């Protein structure tokens, strides 16, 4: 199971250096070491790393979109707050 943690860590932090081939290779090595049916761990690790790649891209996109909407919301509330304060206090002479 050490291969799973190492490969997932690599997939999240170094997506261009470690990829699906590394996941498949570690899975084959685990199959040989544990004596499990050939390809069982390889398929599992490859699918998990593939999902990690896709979700990491989605999370990065969501982060950018959230930052944009947060900035727009902050500017809008600042403008509304300034308008309301101006209406309550009145215009300065």
Secondary structure layout:
Layout: H1 2-13, H2 20-34, H3 40-89
Describe it.
The protein has one domain (2-89). It is mainly α. The N and C termini lie far apart (74 Å). Helix 1 (2-13) packs antiparallel against helix 2 and helix 1 packs across helix 3. The mean pLDDT is 75. It is built from 3 helices and no strands. Helices cover 83% and strands 0% of the residues.
Condensed summary:
With 93 residues, the chain is mainly alpha-helical. The protein is built from three helices and no strands. It has one domain.
Q: Encode the helix/strand succession as letters.
A: HHH
Percentage of helical residues? over 70%
Q: What are the low-pLDDT stretches, counting only 5+ consecutive residues below 50?
A: none
According to DSSP, the number of beta strands is 0
Report the principal-axis shape: rod-shaped
CA-atom Rg in angstroms: 25 Å
Proportion in β-strands: under 5%
The number of domains: 1
Provide a count of the helices. 3
Overall mean pLDDT: 75
Report the sheet with the most strands, covering strand number, pairing sense and barrel closure: none
Q: State the separation between the terminal residues, measured CA to CA.
A: 74 Å
Structural class: mainly alpha
């Amino acid at each position: 199971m050490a291969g799973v943690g190492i490969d997932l860590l690599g997939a999240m932090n170094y997506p261009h250096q470690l990829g699906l081939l590394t996941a498949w290779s570690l899975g084959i090595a685990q199959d040989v070491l544990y004596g499990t049916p050939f390809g069982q761990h390889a398929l599992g690790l490859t699918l998990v790393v593939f999902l990690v790649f896709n979700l990491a891209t989605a999370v990065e996109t969501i982060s950018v979109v959230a930052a944009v909407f947060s900035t727009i919301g902050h500017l809008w509330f600042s403008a509304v707050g300034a308008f309301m304060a101006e209406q309550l206090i009145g215009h300065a002479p």
